[in-house]
Structure formats: structure tokens, C-alpha cells
Design brief:
CATH architecture of the largest domain: Alpha-Beta Complex
Order of helices and strands: HHEEHEEEEEEEHEHHHHH
Largest sheet: 8 strands, mixed
CATH topology of the largest domain: Protein-Tyrosine Phosphatase, Chain A
Number of helices: 9
Radius of gyration: 27 Å
Strand content: 5-15%
Strand order of the largest sheet: 1-2-10-3-9-8-7-6
CATH superfamily of the largest domain: Protein tyrosine phosphatase superfamily
Amino acid sequence: MNDGKMTNNTVEAEYMDIANKNAWPLVYQKIGRECQAYPFTCVEAKKPQNKPLNRYRDVNPYDHSRVILKRCERDYINANLVKMERAQRKYILTQGPLAFTVSHFWLMVWEQNSRAILMLNKIIEKNEIKCHWYWPQGVGEQHKMTLVDVKLTVEQISEEDCSYYSTRVFRIFDMESSESREVIQFHYTTWPDFGVPSSPVAFLEFLKKVRSSGALDPEAGPPVVHCSAGIGRSGTFCLVDSCLVIIEKEGLESVNIQEILLEMRKDRMGLIQTPDQLRFSYQAIIEGTKRLDPDWKEESQMEESVYSSVHEEAEEEAPPPPPPRAESLTRAPARPLPAIPTSTSLGNMAYPASQEESSDEGPPSPPARESSTPSTASSPASSADDEDDEPPAVPTESGDRNELRRRHTRELAERVSAMKRRARDAENWHALKRSLYKPLTITFGVLLAGIIVYSYVKH
């Protein structure tokens, strides 16, 4: 690791050195330890009246950089203004809105004069609600949202499907001032929770599209960037964008990726949630730097030695679900990392090969808008620990790992099937008993009545 300035070749050499030693968790853990010394507080986030407004109880905005709402009963929202002065960049990083914070979210977009919303998650991932559906359910005035408490309306005026991401244009109207403004949403739909995109090339194309809209320009208001917690995927996007801007402005020798990440973490805790996301950031920065070269050609865009180890994992089985986010900001996990790593700010010594796979759910249909209480699945202040997982074995060979993972998945499927069969058998037996109970009762009643009548007549 280098503490001074690094040329692009040095960045790539550093990447290869870390990869060859399988040391991404060690690097990630080192960054986490340095962040533990930060003196920043989260007093507002922990106030009783604000706690329900946090999606996860351990992902809170720092007091010194939190976004303050002006025209609202409460000025609190789980969001931070993250600045990178060297890149002339400002970003608002926030959690995915809860059902009862949708109006706060749009008020923030309006008051901060944001030109774009960058949504890096799906609404539902791994059968869990990660974000409330916060935009209109269709195009046109008939689907317009009216947010009475903050005196805003939101209307969707267009939508475009761009394969692995979508763009939507909204018109926000302020009922107090009668002013209106258009905001574009870039919705990246193939970036898995706790994971990374399948390709740095696709990610860089997405970044290029966002930049071309002018949403990241210094004269525009800061873009609102969110995933579910607003730290993992959101932090990855901002780190890559800032590093590439600095390289373009100051030259190849000017960037130290880890130092820039540490600087950004001073404004919002836990940016970059896994060692995999840190590794992907290096890959995207290396690839993006090559594309800045005037002599760069598409056909020579990627060196297999740098990227081949990332995508070749089998994708037919899902990895174990991520363990709880709750303890991840304060200490390293006590057991080996699963296929999708756990820690929000530390790492782990036993780090298996990466997994790139998207949630297999399609885009959900927009739900009916809720006005007060969210569903249980999207309840606030959870710690993302709704799914149980068993610690996987950590063999030494990649093939053994894949085989163990497949075997574990098959065994789990067999156990689930056996449980379903037992449940069906039990239900069938109870149905049979219910079907026999009524005629037997009637027969017994008739016999009893006959015996009573016979006894009465005989006597």
C-alpha cells in the first residue's frame, strides 16, 4: 500500500498486489479502523422522535454534515451532504425513503435544488423491501402525487428503459410559491445489495450518462444518491466519480483511492460497505482512467488479468444472504465472511471469492401509496437481519467452494421441500378428519336418540 501519490500504473499494480494476496478484507479492515477514530456525533439521529425515521438503526447521519429540512414540522432526514472539494463535487447520500418519509425526501430534493436522483437499488431485493416506491405510479397528471404536509406535488412526465437502468423525468411543483422544476431519476436496476455490478464497463457507461445530463456539475444542486442504507452502493458511485474527476483535473499521479475514501467517510459513515465494493471501485477507476486516454480504443479496453477473476463465478445458485448490518459499523464479524460479505466498515480475514449476481425479481408493480404506517417488511430501524444464514465453509480451492455452495443450496432446497411435503400431508390428514367428523357426529346423534326413544317406549 502506498501512502503517497500514485500513478495509474501504480494504482493498477497496487490492485494486482492486493488481489494476488487476497488481501481486500485486510485493506478494508484498515480503513475501518482509521474511521473508528473519527470524533463525529449522531445526536439528532438518536433522538426518540427521529429514531423511527431511520431505516437501519446503525446507519445514522453525522450531525455536522446532515441535511436540514427547512419547511417541515421536523428538520430531520437520514441524509448527509458529502463534499469532495478537489473534484468540485457535492453529493447528498441518503437512505431509501420509508413510507412515511416520502414527503421529506421530495422536500429535500426541492430545497437542495437537486437536478437528479440516482437510485442504485431495486424496490424489492431477495424478497425484502429495500425502499418505498416514492414516485408517481404512472406518467401523466392523473398519477400526480400530492404531498400536503410539505406543499409539493410530483408528476412523472416521461420514462425510458435503457436495459440495465431506467430514466424518469419528474416535475415538482411548489404549492406555496407556484414554482416548478424538472428532476431526472437515474435508476440502476442491476446492482445487487451488498454486491457489485457485473461489469465496470456497464457501470462507467451509466456514470457517463449521468454526467452528460449535467446533474453532477458544480453549478447544479447536489444530486441525491441513494440505495437502501445510502452507504454501500451509493458510496461506491461517489468514490469512483470523484477519483476520475481528480485524475482528469490533476493527472494520473494525483489520486490515492484509500485516502479519498477516508475523506468522504468524514461526511457520512460507512461509505463502501464490503471489500468487494472496494475492489470494484479500484477496477472502475482503473478502467475509467484508460478511457480518458485519447489513444484508448474500445477493442483494447480491458485486461483479463485484472478483471477475469471477478465475473467467472457460477451464477446459478444464490449465495447465503448477508448477515446483520447492525454490528457491522463497530466491530469485525466473529465468523468467516459469506459469499456476499458483511461488514459495513471493517472486514474479515477469511474472504472468499467475489459474487456478482443481481436479485432475480423483476421490477415490482407500483404499490398503492401509503399515507401513514409502512408494512412490516419496510419497518424503520431494522438492522437488515430479516434472513437467517449459516456460516459457510471456507475451503482453499475455488472449485471446492463452488461445490460446497451448490451442495449447501441443494440440501437447503431438499429440506424446504421435505417441510412442504410434511405440511401438505398434515393438512390433508386434518382435512380428512374434518370431512369424517360431521357424518360421524350425525350418525352418533341419531343412534343416541334412537336408544333414548327405545328406552322410553320400552318402559
